[in-house]
């Protein structure tokens, strides 16, 4: 009996760590799938939205679960599901765009500074420091005040303060790679400087840059929402998660779902972005091993 | 043996009464470690006794499981690898497999001492050396006594130093002092001298040998070098793939080995009697994959393997008429004669196949002729690369973090002839690698002149091939990127790449591999293919074999020799090992602290060294029948080189003038003058030595 139990138990126990590993990988892929799903929803939001997000539908203050309005309507009869979907679209796509632009600009600056060093490095890094020193929200306020509020201006304001982080990270990685023997060996082999940068340095930087960027999407979502909350986003009727929360705030005690739904959406978006970033980091770390 | 005794965990030394009782007993020890979910058996049944007062040399190539054996003895197998241990392992009466953790910890404290390969990482960098020794020894007085016992000069002063303020040799002595604290019954030394210079290595080996004799403790000396084991071990155990291949008294194992693996290791080992003119003897390379094989693990590489070896696992029987000497081989009795027979037959075949005349060196194809900074014309006919009074200075941080000038090269004048191979020999800090980097154009000289080819005509092979190949590029990409000028079509490029791989003995399938998927030897071959795919005029080699196992190193050395003959390259080969230098170099140049001290043809220099430093270096090379030499002091720091002849503080024949000599640091020709006018004589014709005695010592 004891032998039988032992015989059954042993293989299970020895397989346990492996199954855990597969489970971990599966979970990571699921999280990435979730990020993909959110992106898909954001892209298809105009088709998915059951109603016009700006137009009124007649029924005021419909509660959650009302027929035709699963998330209810607000004080002038706009469908909350449609507004949330379109607000999500703006937030999510803009966050991705800010991170992508930051990665591109910061990546180029960091790569040049790290690969060439010397005075170019000094100049580029001092410029980066200058931008890093600017408080992000204040710059956004200033840009909005100078150029007027609007989607493009908000994007500009955040992008201006976002790329320096990537420039710093990429430069650090490149400098660490540049002193490794394989770069010297490539130089010895007569490889041209552009090719050394693109083939012998850049691929080594990609993993850490991608991990940083993917962990960053959530923060950009939050910053965008707070700017919009302060009234620095699109102008009034346009659906925006931050602005919708702030405008409906007086109704928090009477019709709680109107401000809470966009607020919770922001929270969920940022959560999904962070989990997705963690998954990317996990998968890259595992691949590197 | 120990099974019959009652287990007495409270007593630290339950077997102290019987002097011949082994301090460590291993019976059918099996250890499996798992990595990424797959478990592999690293030790596959090891039987071994370590007796008090003996030094047991455990020899094996990388991957043989010798370090895992050491960790198992210490009860320190990495928990992260989920070790599974079977069999019996007792150290000083304590069961290190199933014993209680507290009991094992006490055994480590009371009965075990350990010396690791790299004392820099095993000493705590934030604590003064003294504190760490006191921690092990119990009191400051005892710590000073121990430090004195292992030969640390001025121990009171060294106690206040941090590990980074000590030299490598001193650090290793401190580790040994900590290991012998408390009078352990067994010291486990895992490659304790591998990171040290050869002259320091012999000193540390001497300390270990003496301690074992004085304290009567057992020493398990793990090493990859049969020569090192031969110098200090009483018995040698040869390990292959987690099993012992052969165990026996040192003399017997080295002089009359019985296992084909031991025979192969000894044959591929370099010493000063190795034939320079024919390719080095090598072992059949390890089969790919390293999958578990039935029967004897060595049979895929063994030239004597018979059917029985595939099917049956040989035990480790004591050989008839040879007490204490056992070999795990079915053909142990005949192996030696059979292998010698095979070797003779092969040698005869090689002689028959030898071309009658020396092959005409192919005209080297010079790569892109980029902007030439230095003069690209031969300094003298026949000379391809020449330096005059070459100097190279850096600003570095010294041990206390202050900026300090470091003179890596202090006036090197050297002519390298076209087609010759020159071996640069020296210890760490001698400037040999800096000289190579200056020749390669990777480092700018700060003084003196250099004439010779540049750009693609000079190529370099680095010490760590793994690090010199870009990890994310495939072998195909690493090789084709050297073929960008002139533009070649795809088929032609592919043909050249495959030909280059073929010339270093790698199959076409290697093309799509990344460096991490290759073994150490394969990576060094890829690095060689990359350097020679466009044949260079000068090939610079920076210790390309020092990280490889003996048998792999022999393969790579053969390969460099063959490529050199085929492509007509000039080779400059940096090494710390004189036996390698003698094989690879037509000439040997010996460096000490940034200057050449002696240069001459390889045979002459090794047979009749004329500089006291060359003598010391030669005597320190571990050999099978070499006594441990007595060499004074350690190489001085290049931050503060001694005045005059830099070697004078260590030199046994130094005179007063050595401290401020100007002539004694110049290379002066010695020996008979070559026939013919002096101006046309090739530079290699003369021996030269930089010493006030002018070679008359």
TrEMBL record, chain A:
Membrane topology, record value: Multi-pass membrane protein
CDD domains: TM_PBP2
GO CC, one annotated term: plasma membrane
Transmembrane intervals: 26-49, 92-119, 139-165, 256-277
Keyword RNA-binding applies: no
Residue ranges of domain ABC transmembrane type-1 in the record: 88-277
Keyword Transmembrane: yes
Highest taxon listed in the record's lineage: Bacteria
Keyword terms: Cell membrane, Membrane, Transmembrane, Transmembrane helix, Transport
BP GO annotations: transmembrane transport
Alphabetical list of PROSITE patterns matching this protein: ABC_TM1
Subcellular locations according to the entry: Cell membrane
One Pfam match: BPD_transp_1
Family designation: Belongs to the binding-protein-dependent transport system permease family.
Xref: PANTHER family: D,D-DIPEPTIDE TRANSPORT SYSTEM PERMEASE PROTEIN DDPC-RELATED, OLIGOPEPTIDE TRANSPORT SYSTEM PERMEASE PROTEIN APPC
UniProt protein name: ABC transporter permease
UniProtKB/TrEMBL annotation, chain B:
InterPro entries in the cross-refs: AAA+_ATPase, ABC_Ni/Peptide_Import, ABC_transporter-like_ATP-bd, ABC_transporter-like_CS, Oligopep_ABC_C, P-loop_NTPase
PANTHER family: DIPEPTIDE TRANSPORT ATP-BINDING PROTEIN DPPD, OLIGOPEPTIDE TRANSPORT ATP-BINDING PROTEIN APPD
Keywords: ATP-binding, Cell membrane, Membrane, Nucleotide-binding, Transport
GO annotation (BP), single: peptide transport
Disordered: annotated segments: 1-21
Database matches in Pfam families: ABC_tran (PF00005), oligo_HPY (PF08352)
Name of the protein: ABC transporter ATP-binding protein
Protein family membership: Belongs to the ABC transporter superfamily.
Segments forming domain ABC transporter: 26-266, 394-618
NCBIfam families on file: oligo_HPY (TIGR01727), PRK11308.1 (NF008453)
Membrane topology (UniProt): Peripheral membrane protein
Subcellular location(s) per record: Cell membrane
SUPFAM superfamilies linked: P-loop containing nucleoside triphosphate hydrolases
GO cellular component: plasma membrane
Keyword Protein biosynthesis (UniProt): no
């Amino acid at each position: 009996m004891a032998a039988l139990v032992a015989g059954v138990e042993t293989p299970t126990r020895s397989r346990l760590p492996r199954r855990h590993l597969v489970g971990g990988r599966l979970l990571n892929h699921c999280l990435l799938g979730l990020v993909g799903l959110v992106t898909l929803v954001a892209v298809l939001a105009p088709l998915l939205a059951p109603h016009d997000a700006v137009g009124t539908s007649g029924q005021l203050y419909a509660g959650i679960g009302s027929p035709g309005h699963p998330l209810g309507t607000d004080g002038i009869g706009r469908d909350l599901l449609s507004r949330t979907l379109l607000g999500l679209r703006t937030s999510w796509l803009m966050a991705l765009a800010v991170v992508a632009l930051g990665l591109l600009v910061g990546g180029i600056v960091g790569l040049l500074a790290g690969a060439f060093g010397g005075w170019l490095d000094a100049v580029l890094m001092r410029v980066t420091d200058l931008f890093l020193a600017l408080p992000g929200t204040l710059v956004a306020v200033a840009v909005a005040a100078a150029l007027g509020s609007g989607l493009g201006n908000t994007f500009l304001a955040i992008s201006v303060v976002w790329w320096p982080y990537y420039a710093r990270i990429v430069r650090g990685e490149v400098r660490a790679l540049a002193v490794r023997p394989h770069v010297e060996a490539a130089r010895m082999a007569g490889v041209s400087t552009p090719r050394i940068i693109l083939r012998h340095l850049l691929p080594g930087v990609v993993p850490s840059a991608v991990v940083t960027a993917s962990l960053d999407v959530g923060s950009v979502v939050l910053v965008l929402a707070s700017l919009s909350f302060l009234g620095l986003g699109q102008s009034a009727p346009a659906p925006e998660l931050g602005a919708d929360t702030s405008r409906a705030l007086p109704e928090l005690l009477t019709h709680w779902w109107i401000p809470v739904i966009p607020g919770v959406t922001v929270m969920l978006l940022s959560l999904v972005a962070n989990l997705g970033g963690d998954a990317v980091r996990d998968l890259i770390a595992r691949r590197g091993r | 043996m120990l099974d019959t005794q009652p287990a007495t965990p409270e007593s630290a030394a339950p077997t102290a009464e019987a002097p011949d009782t082994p301090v460590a007993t291993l019976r059918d020890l099996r250890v499996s470690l798992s990595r990424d979910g797959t478990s592999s058996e690293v030790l596959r049944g090891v039987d071994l006794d370590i007796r008090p007062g003996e030094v047991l040399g455990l020899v094996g190539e990388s991957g043989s499981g010798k370090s895992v054996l050491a960790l198992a003895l210490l009860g320190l197998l990495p928990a992260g690898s989920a070790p599974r241990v079977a069999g019996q392992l007792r150290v000083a009466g304590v069961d290190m497999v199933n014993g209680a953790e507290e009991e094992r910890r006490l055994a480590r404290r009371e009965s075990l001492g350990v010396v690791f390969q790299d004392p820099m990482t095993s000493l705590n960098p934030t604590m003064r050396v003294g504190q760490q020794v006191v921690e092990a020894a119990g009191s400051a007085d005892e710590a000073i006594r121990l430090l004195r016992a292992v030969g640390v000069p001025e121990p009171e002063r060294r106690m206040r130093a941090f590990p980074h303020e000590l030299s490598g040799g001193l650090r290793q002595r401190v580790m040994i002092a900590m290991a012998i604290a408390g009078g352990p019954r067994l010291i486990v030394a895992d490659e304790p001298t591998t990171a040290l210079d050869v002259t320091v290595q012999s000193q540390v080996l001497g300390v270990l040998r003496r301690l074992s004799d004085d304290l009567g403790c057992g020493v398990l000396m793990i090493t990859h070098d049969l020569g090192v084991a031969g110098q200090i071990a009483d018995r040698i155990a040869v390990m292959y793939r987690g099993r012992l291949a052969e165990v026996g008294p040192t003399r017997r194992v080295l002089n009359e080995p019985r296992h084909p693996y031991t025979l192969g290791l000894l044959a591929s080992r370099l010493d000063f009697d190795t034939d320079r003119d024919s390719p080095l003897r090598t072992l059949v390379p390890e089969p790919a994959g390293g999958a578990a094989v039935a029967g004897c693990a060595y049979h895929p590489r063994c030239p004597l393997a018979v059917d029985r070896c595939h099917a049956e696992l040989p035990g480790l029987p004591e050989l008839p008429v040879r007490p204490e000497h056992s070999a795990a081989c079915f053909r142990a009795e005949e192996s030696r004669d059979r292998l010698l027979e095979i070797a003779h037959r092969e040698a005869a075949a090689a002689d028959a196949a030898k071309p009658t005349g020396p092959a005409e060196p192919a005209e080297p194809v010079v790569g892109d002729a980029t902007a030439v900074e230095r003069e690209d014309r031969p300094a003298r006919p026949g000379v391809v690369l020449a330096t005059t009074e070459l100097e190279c200075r850096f600003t570095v941080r010294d041990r206390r973090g202050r900026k300090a000038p470091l003179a890596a090269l202090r006036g090197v004048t050297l002519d390298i002839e076209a087609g010759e191979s020159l071996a640069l020999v020296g210890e760490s800090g001698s400037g040999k690698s800096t000289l190579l980097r200056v020749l390669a154009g990777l480092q700018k000289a700060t003084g003196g002149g250099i004439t010779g080819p540049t750009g693609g005509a000079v190529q370099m092979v680095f010490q760590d091939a793994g690090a010199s190949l870009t990890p994310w590029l495939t072998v195909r990409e690493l090789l084709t990127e050297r073929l960008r000028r002139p533009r070649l079509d795809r088929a032609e490029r592919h043909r050249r790449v495959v030909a280059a791989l073929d010339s270093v003995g790698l199959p076409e399938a290697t093309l799509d591999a990344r460096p991490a998927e290759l073994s150490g030897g394969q990576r060094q071959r890829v690095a060689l293919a990359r350097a020679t795919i466009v044949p260079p005029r000068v090939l610079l080699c920076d210790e390309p074999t020092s990280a490889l196992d003996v048998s792999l190193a022999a393969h790579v050395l053969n390969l460099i020799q063959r490529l050199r003959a085929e492509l007509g390259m000039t080779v400059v080969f940096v090494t710390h090992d004189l036996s390698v230098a003698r094989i690879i170099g037509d000439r040997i140049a010996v460096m000490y602290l940034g200057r050449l001290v002696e240069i001459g043809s390889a045979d002459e220099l090794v047979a009749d060294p004329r500089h006291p430093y060359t003598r010391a270096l030669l005597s320190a090379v571990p050999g099978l029948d070499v006594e441990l030499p007595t060499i004074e002091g350690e190489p001085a720091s290049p931050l503060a080189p001694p005045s005059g002849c830099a070697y004078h503080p260590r030199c046994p024949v130094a005179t007063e003038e050595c401290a401020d000599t100007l002539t004694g640091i110049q290379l002066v020709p010695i020996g008979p003058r070559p026939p013919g006018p002096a101006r046309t004589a090739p530079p290699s014709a003369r021996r030269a030595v930089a010493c006030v005695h002018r070679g008359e010592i």
